[in-house]
Structures are given as structure tokens and as C-alpha cells.
Amino acid sequence: MAPGLKRFTDVAADGTPRLDDAAGEELVCVERAASVALGSRAPEPPGTLFITTRRVIWLSGAEKGKGYAVGFLDITLHAVSRDPEAYPSPCLYTQIEAEADSDEEDGDFDSEAGGDSQLPKISEMRIILADAAQLDSLFNAFCHCAELNPDPTAEENEDSDLFHGGDMTNGGWIHGDEDEHMVDGIDPEFFIPNPIGQNGGDDLSSSVLELQINDQRFEDADEEEARENGH
């Protein structure tokens, strides 16, 4: 499906949008008396804003059957704007992934097919609330839903770079590419655990005895050197 802003008309009899229950879509919050300004156009007359776990949906209060929707996967940036030099009204500013190789078209559009074809070219949408004090709550809702909809491309790249189909074995990561024989970063060629009581095929007690004999030789050598020096 092409990215970007789309017209929304799937409204139930009670005036609320029909959600994609099969995909687990749920309503997060509702803002009444909310206007949207698409691109460089003037704000639409107030309507109702619905934030779901998957989409931002706005339904017009002045024109029945008119609405817009955009998925959170297509929203690349959102921020609260209170600078009158940036925009006359406090708003939640969003950037939308628009159609590739297309510029936003200025001018009005209606419900005809020509108007709908312009929607995916909209790269900016501002949400203006009647109560500007609610912008922070709206921003938090956007943050929450953005976390629920991470970029799948980024996740695939991260998994490919970090794990390469890895699995956890013997307390160390065993990777699927060039490190498939590595355990905790150590090549088994240099990491060969010995059975208890053995040391490289020799009996452990023999190794300890040999160590004690060597220690005794060092002590005898030290005493001999002390006598020669007159100590």
C-alpha cells in the first residue's frame, strides 16, 4: 500500500471510525474540536481526532463523511509547536512520508478523485486543538503509539547486523556467519575445557607433585646463593 495521508470514510453509525480489530487496532484517545491543516492549506473546520494504536484519524464535524487518516508508520516526525513565527496557532506538527518523487500541490481539493490523488503528496499536517493545554497529552499519545509501530526495516537491519541468526548456547552467543564456531568470542581451538582431575591428558595429582618439586628446587637454589654471599 502506498504511504501517506489518505481519505477516510469507514465510519460506523455512531460516528466513530471502524477499527481493524483483526490487526489488534485499539482506540487510545479522542480529541474533540480539533482542526487539521494539511500542507500549506488553511485549517479545516473543527472535527474529531481519533488516535489509535495504528493510525491518526480525523473526521470532519462540518461535512459528514469527510475524513483523513495516516498510519503511524508513515509519520516520520511529530513535535509540539508554540512559536507564532513558525505557525500562528499552537499545534502538533507532523511530517508524513509522501509519495516518492512528488511535490506537494497547493490549492484546494475536494472529494472528487482528483482531490484524493493529491493526499499522498501531503508531507506535513498540523493538528490544532481548541484547548492548547492538551497538546502535551496529545504529544505523549503520539510517542506511545510511535513506540508500538517501530520501523520494520530498521528492525530487520539491526537484527541482521547484530545476530545473523544467532542462538544462545553454553552461556555464549553463537552466530550464524563467520562466528558460528565462536563461544564468547573465543575460538574453541584455543578453548578446550579439560575434564575434572585431568590436565591436558595428564593426571592432575602428577602436575601438582611436579609443581611442588619445582618449588623445592627454587628454594634450594635460593639457600645456596645466600650461603655463597655470606648471609
TrEMBL record:
Cellular compartment(s): Cytoplasm; Nucleus
Signal peptide: none
Biased composition (Polar residues): 204-215
Organism: Triticum aestivum
Biased composition (Acidic residues): 220-231
The protein's name in its UniProt record: Chloride conductance regulatory protein ICln
Keywords: Cytoplasm, Nucleus
Chief location of this protein within or outside the cell: cytoplasm
InterPro entries: ICln/Lot5/Saf5, PH-like_dom_sf
Any GO BP annotation: spliceosomal snRNP assembly
Region of interest called Disordered, as start-end residue ranges on this chain: 194-231
Database matches in Gene3D superfamilies: Pleckstrin-homology domain (PH domain)/Phosphotyrosine-binding domain (PTB)
One Gene Ontology term, aspect cellular component: pICln-Sm protein complex
Entry-linked Pfam families: Voldacs
Record-linked PANTHER family: CHLORIDE CONDUCTANCE REGULATORY PROTEIN ICLN, NUCLEOTIDE-SENSITIVE CHLORIDE CONDUCTANCE REGULATOR FAMILY PROTEIN, EXPRESSED
Gene: LOC123085282
